[in-house]
Amino acid sequence: MKVLLxxxxxxxxxxxxxxxxxxxxxxNFLLPQGLAMLATPGAMKQAEKIKGQAEVKRAALNSELKxxxxxxxxxxxxxxxxxxxxxxxxxxxxxxxxxxxxxEQTKYEVKRQQIDMQPIREVGEFKAHVRLTIDLIPEIKIIxxxxxxxxxxxxxxxxxxxxxxxxxxxxxxxxxxxAEAVPAEEAKAE
Length: 190
What we know:
By secondary structure, the protein is an alpha+beta fold. It has helices at residues 23-33, 41-44, 47-72, 95-106, 149-162, 170-189; strands at 2-5, 18-20, 36-38, 76-81, 88-93, 115-116, 120-122, 124-130, 139-146. Among the domains are: 2-45, Ribosomal Protein L9, domain 1; 71-148, Roll (Ribosomal Protein L9, domain 2), CATH 3.10.430.
């Protein structure tokens, strides 16, 4: 099915373009949503008019959202999540979580549908894109770490500053003592 796009459609094209799409996609989504019309000879005469109007709207929208894109671009979001020994999360970081974090950090509302990423299911560093318009797509950085990991990373730093060993819990102390005792027993056996 050939359609003439009336509005910009993400991953399909810009307004005024003629595209060949699957029948179901055109009939069930593009036409009812008012994003496209059938590419008939009468509609083709309107293509240039639609392109001109869309470019004016696109330029106005881009200039309006330019400040927002500059503000969001390069934002780093950090999430603490429960994770297993291998780094796999027990849940996942979704687009809704990222949208909420952007709202908290920048005070700008971004819909979850505008965030282009797969759900994050492991510890690490990731990149995601926020689709504000077809031309403005700022990139954000997402860091996922294990819950309590930051506290563990700060403990050795404190030890080096004071020169003292950090205080350990009885269970951790017992494991350290057992680990130190094993090499001593091996040395006696030789």
